[in-house]
Description:
By secondary structure, the chain is mainly α. The protein contains 16 helices and 5 strands.
Amino acid sequence: MAGEKKEKYSINSNYIVGCRFDNWIRLLWQNKFRIKPSCIPKAIYITLVSFVMFFPAMLEKLIYGRKIKNINIDKPPVFILGHWRSGTTYIFNVMAQDEQFAYFDAVSVFTHNNFLLMGKMIRKILAKSMPEKRPMDDIKYTTYVPQEELYAYGSQIPECVIHMSAFPHNGDFYRNMAFKKCMTPKQYKRFCKAYLGILKKLTFAKKGKELLLKSPDNTCRVGVINEMFPNAKFIHIYRNPYRVIMSTIGLFKTMFPMFSLQGFPDDEYVENFILDLYARLYTQYIEDKKNIPEDRLVEIAYEDFVKDPVNMLGDIYGKLGIDGFEEAKPRFEKYIESLGDYKTNNFVLSDDLKKKINDKLGYFIDYFGYDRME
């Protein structure tokens, strides 16, 4: 039974099933239709589902497109920043308990192109195919749990880092698409249009609520976001880089078997890929944050946040000028209590990987105030 459940998750809940049909064809073309033979059934399934869902997606666009286009995002969005496995999900889930915020959930990201017209039906279908817990860390999983918006805009355009998990042979290209400087003007324009479009659509669906957003790739797009939303607020959570790298390797080794249509990269490639992405992401972030006023950016260490999350949230709300902390505080406390004694995964750091981390990320280890492991 366990094996059946894993296969069910890897096919029916593959994020790319929610791709708009034209984008799915674009991705196949971009990757020269290179699909591993054993993954061909997955590709056929994705093609059929995306084709069937394309027509109601176009109907949804016809009905709501003009209204969404005319929506103004009046309230400055709050962006949670940080590399994968840095604690972004934890703080996101806690802050989502504040009812003044709107956020993406499984339905609005994985089936973004259809969720206004078909959301109720899709939620029932997703609820049957989703695992009870996230495979990478055993956090409780439901269709209402907050999700990263990169799945939503990635369903519409190929310029999205998440596509590296479906097409790892082209992983370097998709990694580069997280960085403005690596995009052509046409690619950047398409990204901005898609990204603004999904945020407007969520704002429309949630009747103008303030947006709470979390997607690790936003960490290297602070400059871009600041141009799009001059009053945006940022919460950056960082964590011991050794823990982050080891945990991210575990994440990628979970993602590739679930999502890949081209087989799985070897361990050395995964390690080097993640180290390079971390270094580039934080090089860009450190440069971009120079242009963000102190009253719009808060930086916290994961190790500090988990010790006293509620009081730290009070500080964050105060520094960023976010109202409503006292009203939301009981919900924060209730949610945190519901987690029980959740423990993070344990990893063994090899001497070889430790040396790689020290050589590649030594500057960032020092920058964030952690001790180097020798």
